[in-house]
Structure formats: structure tokens, C-alpha cells
Design brief:
The complex is a heterodimer of chains A (129) and B (331). By secondary structure, chain A is an alpha+beta fold. Chain A is 20% helix and 34% strand. Chain A is globular, with a radius of gyration of 17 Å. The longest helix of chain B has 27 residues, at 2-28. Classes of the chains: A alpha+beta (129), B alpha/beta (331).
């Protein structure tokens, strides 16, 4: 199942040039850019593994693209996303997040119904590999 | 699930096709000739070169080399627009010269020049020394160097006193690791950044001899000559004019003598020594005004540096007290 989370996820996967242009836009706005990866695309899994620190003082997207290439090499078949953080409100708040790599075969997400307290129903989701 | 991925793939393929077509269109519109003069005017290269001429005193060989480099880059760019075979020229440089001869200033101008010619995308200068590149323990160097390189992408990386990276006396020195990463990036990311190595001529020569990889990857070796006494005087005038100070005629004579004496003393750093002398003269002038002036001071008096402000320097007494003492004990 094609996971759709973050920006652009209903579009075809971005090419490297397109990713670079998006990162360039982030840097022009003075946002810090971070790379994160995970093998668990559950929508409630908000904390992905960080690939190094977010990059705060870059001028050119090439720096991010180099890190992304390293991250892809180390984590083939995982989800990788790029996050941009805006600090105008004195906290590094996320303003943009988009997927830049997904596994060839993506896991499906299944909804599970559980009956509790008599006939009450609880819904939860699990990632199926 | 499958249907979704298929459409995605189809769309990507279509977009790629569209991309190929636009590239094709560009090829068709390629101009048949290029006016170098016009390129020179439009790209803003002229402004940078004129700026260089106006703001930097002396340094004729450096200016000539930069003009040559600019010409080469302009022609390369023109060749590229006409579709002639071209390869991004190697732009890494080494600036050698004594301290205070303007290496950092020229590097800054160079970054602007390369930006205008389109050889670097952003044109900022990241100035680093050994401490910024080399780590303190195993595994610290590579991330540190990479961090700096990432910051310098799209601009110019200026490594001051680059020979400190290589310490032959300690074979386990982490500098070697930084050198290897640098060499790799200088080779693979030639389109992304330009590296300028700077330092004293003789030590740089030694550094290049022990690291032949650097020598072959650096195309432009630019030597910065020492300033002559007259040039230093002109620099002093330029500095003072920039901060609205004037020299009395006697002070000017004193300064000329100062320059002559200072050159013979140790740790002479060309323009930097002059700047320091100027800073100290300002200090003495302020002190003098504060202690002697009664009543209102006008602008002329506030900006006049007198003979006494310069003559009070220790240079006229043979340098720093420690230096004088050392020379006397030797005798």
C-alpha cells in the first residue's frame, strides 16, 4: 500500500532534482533541514530515527543531498523523509516534511477492531509486512 | 495497491519524457555567436575587477592572475553556451604569501567573481583553519570535516594556513584523514565548491611536496608579494580615509619612518601591522585629546593624528621590550 504522509505524497515520487529544489526553497527561507528514516510507517509513529543532526547553517541544497545519499546507502529499503524546521516562533517547529525514499514493496496497514466492555468497539491500526 | 504504483510510475515516465523534450528545445535555441565584451559587461565581472583595482593597493601580479582567470572562465562559459566541448575547469587555488598580504580579502573577491560567472551557485566564503576540520579523537575528524564541507557547498572554502593539516612528525595525526576527505570532495564535487588553500610560501611548498594529491588538483597557484613601503603608506592613507582620520604632515613622515623600522623587526605582517599601528595611534590620540583638551573640540581636531601619536610607538625604541632585551643579551 502506498503510504501517503507529509507533503507531495499523492504525487509521483520526487526526482533528486526536485528534492534538491524543495530543499533549496527551505534554505532560502532560513529553515533548518533534517533527514530521518524508519522501517515503521505507522501514522502514529511520529518519531523517526534521525540521520545526524538537523543542518542549521547550510547555504546550498547540495549539503543535504550529500547526507541524503549517505542515508540512502546506509538504509536501503527504508522510508526516508526530509523535515524543515522554522524557528521564527522561537521553537524549531516543523513546517515541511516529505518522503524522499520508500521501500520497493511497501507494507500494508490493517485496521483491527476489538470489542471491549460489552459491545463497545475500539479501533487500532497495525503495519503488516 | 499495484494500480497505485503503476500510475505513479507512468506519470514519472511521462514527466521524464517531457523533461527530455525541453532539453531538446534548448539545444535548438543555442546561439550561433557570443559577444565576449557584452558577456563581460553583463555578468558583472567588470565591477568585481574594478572593485579589486580600486580597493586593493599594489598586488599587481595577483590582479593580473585574477584577470587571466576571469578571462579563462568567461571564454569557457562562452564555449559552453555555443555547445563546444567543455569540462568544468578545475578552479581550486592556492594563495601563498606572507601574513597581511591580502589573501583573505582576495578570496572574498574571488568568491564574488566565481558567483557572477556562474561557477559557484551561492558565492559565500567559508573561512576555516585546522581546528575547524580536524577532530580531537578517533572518529571525530570525518564528521567535522564533512560538516564544514556541507556548509561550504555552493561557495568557496578558504583554508587558512593549510599546511597545519599535515603534521609529518606525528604519523597518527588526524589531519591526514581531513586531507583525504578534502581531496575526495575536491575531485568529486568540482561543480559544487571551490577550495582555496592559503599560507606562507615556503611552508605551502613543503606541504604540496608531501601531499602530491593537492598539487595536481590545484590549477591556480597565486603568489602574494610583500608590499613596498610606498604601498604600505598608501594602504595607511586608505584605511585612515575610510574612517575619516587625517595625518598631519609631520605624522606622515613619522609613519614612513615607522614602516621602515617595523619591517626590520620580527612578526612584521604587512597591512595587518599597519592596521594595528593605526589602531594604537587612535588610542593614543584619544588619550591625548582627553588629557590635554580644554573646551570644545571641532571635527578637524577629533580626526587629526599628530606626530606624537605615532612617535610614541615602541617600534621607534627598537620593538617590544622583550625583543630589545633579547637582542642585548645576545650581544
Amino acid at each position: 500500500m502506498r503510504i501517503t504522509q507529509g507533503c507531495f505524497s499523492f504525487l509521483p515520487d520526487l526526482t533528486d532534482d526536485q528534492i534538491s529544489a524543495q530543499v533549496g526553497y527551505c534554505l532560502e527561507n532560513g529553515w533548518a533541514v533534517g533527514i530521518e528514516y524508519t522501517d515503521e510507517p505507522h501514522p502514529r509513529n511520529t518519531y523517526w530515527e534521525m540521520w545526524g543532526h538537523p543542518m542549521f547553517d547550510l547555504r546550498d541544497p547540495k549539503g543535504v543531498m550529500m547526507e541524503l545519499a549517505e542515508c540512502r546507502k546506509a538504509n536501503p529499503g527504508m522510508y526516508i523523509r526530509i523535515n524543515a524546521f522554522d524557528d521564527t516562533r522561537n521553537v524549531e517547529s516543523m513546517t515541511l516534511s516529505f518522503l524522499v525514499q520508500r521501500p520497493e514493496v511497501e507494507p500494508a496497514i490493517r485496521m483491527v477492531r476489538t470489542e471491549v466492555d460489552g459491545r463497545a468497539m475500539r479501533y487500532s491500526h497495525e503495519v503488516m509486512r | 495497491m499495484n494500480a497505485g504504483t503503476e500510475t505513479a510510475e507512468m506519470e514519472t515516465a511521462e514527466m521524464e519524457k517531457a523533461g527530455v523534450e525541453t532539453v531538446g528545445a534548448e539545444v535548438a535555441e543555442r546561439p550561433a555567436s557570443v559577444d565576449l565584451r557584452e558577456e563581460y559587461e553583463c555578468s558583472g565581472v567588470r565591477e568585481v575587477l574594478e572593485d579589486l583595482d580600486r580597493e586593493l593597493i599594489g598586488l599587481t601580479p595577483v590582479k593580473d592572475r585574477i584577470r587571466e582567470t576571469a578571462a579563462l572562465l568567461l571564454v569557457e562559459r562562452a564555449r559552453a553556451t555555443l555547445g563546444l566541448g567543455h569540462e568544468t575547469p578545475t578552479l581550486h587555488m592556492s594563495f601563498t604569501g606572507n601574513p597581511g598580504t591580502g589573501k583573505t580579502t582576495v578570496a572574498l573577491k574571488m568568491a564574488g567573481l566565481l558567483k557572477r560567472l556562474g561557477y559557484v551557485r551561492k558565492g559565500h566564503l567559508v573561512s576555516v583553519t585546522r581546528d575547524d576540520l580536524v577532530g580531537q579523537y578517533i572518529g571525530h575528524t570525518a564528521p567535522k570535516t564533512r560538516e564544514v564541507l556541507k556548509r561550504a557547498m555552493g561557495g568557496v572554502l578558504f583554508i587558512d594556513e593549510a599546511y597545519y593539516l599535515y603534521r609529518p612528525d606525528n604519523e597518527r595525526d588526524y589531519g591526514q584523514e581531513a586531507i583525504e576527505i578534502l581531496l575526495q570532495v575536491m575531485e568529486n564535487n568540482r561543480d559544487d565548491l571551490v577550495v582555496i588553500l592559503a599560507g606562507y610560501a615556503d611552508r605551502m611548498e613543503h606541504f604540496f611536496n608531501s601531499n602530491p594529491g593537492f598539487r595536481s588538483r590545484i590549477a591556480h597557484h597565486i603568489e602574494f608579494p610583500d608590499y613596498s613601503d610606498d604601498e604600505l603608506m598608501a594602504i595607511a592613507r586608505h584605511m585612515m580615509a575610510g574612517q575619516s582620520y587625517t595625518l598631519s604632515p609631520r605624522a606622515e613622515a613619522a609613519l614612513a619612518e615607522y614602516i621602515r623600522l617595523r619591517r626590520a623587526q620580527p612578526h612584521f605582517a604587512n597591512a595587518r601591522s599597519i592596521r594595528n599601528a593605526f589602531d594604537r595611534a587612535r588610542l593614543r590620540q584619544a588619550n591625548r585629546l582627553f588629557e590635554t583638551a580644554t573646551g570644545a573640540l571641532d571635527a578637524a581636531r577629533l580626526s587629526l593624528i599628530d606626530e606624537g601619536d605615532i612617535r610614541a610607538s615602541r617600534v621607534f625604541r627598537g620593538g617590544l621590550d622583550s625583543e630589545v632585551a633579547r637582542r642585548e643579551t645576545k650581544r
